[in-house]
Queue: 2 jobs
Job 1
Amino acid sequence: MSRVLTRNARAVPTPQRFAARTRARRWRTAGWLIAVVVLIGAIAGAAWAVVWSSLFDIRTVEVRGTSNLSADEVRIAAQVPRGVPLIHADTDEVAQRVEALLLVADAQVSRHWPNTVRIEITERTTAAVVADGDGAYALLDATGVRFDTVAERPEGFPLIDAEIEDGAGADAAIVMAGLTVARALPPDLAVRTEEIRARTPDSVTVVLDDGVVVEWGGAEESARKAAVLTVLMQQPAQIYDVSTPEMPTTSG
């Protein structure tokens, strides 16, 4: 009986032990509170540094993807403000300003910490040319946009013979019909194409460098027409008509 009482007596905390445990709990609680306050302060400080301090100001505008354009031309068009926090850079507006350049098909703008705005552009490439008066030639990309004018006709691109005015209205449909046909031509014929005559969207004619004529018709089913033409041209002829691919004909 005395042993049980002795064990129970030892299990009862003394006032000193109770006070010590209370102080320990208070210190642990205080430690957590201090850690939370320090964390909040660090986050607030970091946010202030990013949004307001000069530590993350824009200092560099990096340009990638230029070929015909210079990096400085892109920077001038972009109008990226220097000396303001990087977080304040409106990447969408910068991209819109760069894409206003005729030679630019697409612009992607991004922030790169701590101090750089990066502009990556895709320049327009020539898909065909059109006569532009006074012996000059306008370069068209695959979407029909005129993006440059040159004095001499560049080699390797078909000439679209169509009367157009800045690719607008009904003329745009005529040009796009010619471009669609140009893209559909088999590679061996594409390099031989001298001219693509497009008077209406449904009346396209391909003229090869040896005078051979391909009556294409409309731009619809161009892939199928190209496949039929490849087989049809195994027969020598002067005129190939694939305007109705189900019933192709030859003559001459």
Job 2
Amino acid sequence: MKRPAHWLSASVALLAVTLFVCPKPAAANSYNIFDLGTANGRDLVGMDTAGDVVISQSYGCGVASFVCYVTYVDGVAGTPSASAPNLVYDDGTPCSSTPTGFNALNTVCNQGMVGLGTVYNPNGDKNGTYIGSGDDLQLLTGGSADQIFLNSVGDLAWTDGAGEEIFVAIDPPGPAVSPIPEPGSLLLVGTGLLWFTAAVRRRANR
């Protein structure tokens, strides 16, 4: 049975509108993960809203001080200091419940986000450190999360006791979903739809 050309054109137009007005969300955030060095003789002190991490250690300030503090900005260590920096820490608080399907050893919640270290998850997911919201979590690294801090913008710092390393995951600014298609994609899809519509009309008119 032949279909009218205007019916086919309307179908193509509807498909185009659907493609353009329905943005596709990213599967997961792209965190920048920095290794802050060994956890031997070192502990996480806190993290601020900017994602700057303070670590205390038992070496680096000479014989005058038994405790030394190092501040990391985007994974880069500052100069060790015998006194703690004047930062307002934003570390989150322990979660009141564990996300479904995860066996959490340590959890931290902040502004709707959750970070946790897990082992032997009932849902079969790998052991390691996760971050996300609700029950939608993504794996950052394997290992453990003996200490774990989460700031209000979604940056996570933790001590991997299994590997004896300290890490921070920085969530780059910007939306995870872009509702506006790229100009190049618009041109490519638009040209293809015009060609397809013309071909359909020619066939329908025969």
